[in-house]
Amino acid sequence: MPLQGTFDVLDFSGVLELVSERNMSGRLHVRGRSFAGNLFFSDGMIVGADQSEHQAAAIVGDVPQRVQEICFEFLGADRGNFEFHPGRTSAPAATNMSVEDAMAQARQRLEEWQELQLLIPSLDAQPRLVSELDPGQVTLDRDQWRVLTAVDGRRNLRSIGRALNMSDFEVCRAMRDLLSAKVVELDTRQAGMAGFNEVDAPLATEQVTINGKRATRLKPSHAPAKAGASSDDDPDMPTIVISPIKRDRDEAPRPAEAATNHKDN
Question: Nearest Cα to 147, choosing from 72, 196, 203?
Fold first, then answer.
């Protein structure tokens, strides 16, 4: 029989500790107000994860991230329910993470989330491109690039996340870095989104022109090191470098505008 209950009786961390201490195998389904997910266990170790709301099931490379996301969402939750279905899981063993490590990472993410909320107080804030870029180069990673291509002056942060299939935490983390690089600015006044179709998010492109500056995707071996990057960063992750467009001396400057250009294959 499955083990089931609500978080007001046994909280999320207590459920994980129970499964771990008893070396149980099976699928733990957890559901809150607007978020649901599955954690797959083998002998008390987390071996897989997927989410069943707006985000797709995790592939092999995404599993540790999805485990962290699920634990973060339910850490400290006082409402929600769980069901544990015992048995050997059919999910591929894409990771082998202890409950202790998963909860430690979730707590670390919670601390970062609280810091992000001080900078970005509302997901209803609307980002927009700055009118002038600072001199020099700006290096963007993959998530920052995806968020940047979705900034059109109409979408708020919540809509950008849904359109790009990114969590609120992932969007705010990328937006923090874009704000720090002074590529975008935030309008924190709550604005309506009438007439906006979330599935129409633009795809990341090879080149984009932003207010007289051109962003070009570089191979990792040619990309300058990102300030503050840790040694744990993926060395193969593509980067985007924004640098000034060279103009002919006689060419008159054009008004600043944002446009996306697809690179021909």
Answer: 203
Q: Say whether pLDDT at 101 is over 90.
A: yes
Give the residue carrying structure tokens 């940047």.
148
Q: Which two tokens stand for residue 128?
A: 């927009």
Closest residue by Cα to residue 75 from 144, 14, 143, 160:
14
Q: 230: pLDDT confidence band, cut at 50, 70 and 90?
A: very low
Entry pTM: 0.62
**pLDDT value of position 104:** 95
| 3-state secondary structure at position 82 | strand
Taking 3-state DSSP, the helix, strand and coil percentages for the chain, each rounded to the nearest 5, stand at 30, 25, 45
- Using CA atoms, how far residue 177 sits from 16, 22, 93, in Å, is 33, 42, 33
CA distance readout (Å), 181 to 5, 28, 135: 46, 40, 11
Token pair belonging to 223: 């990309």
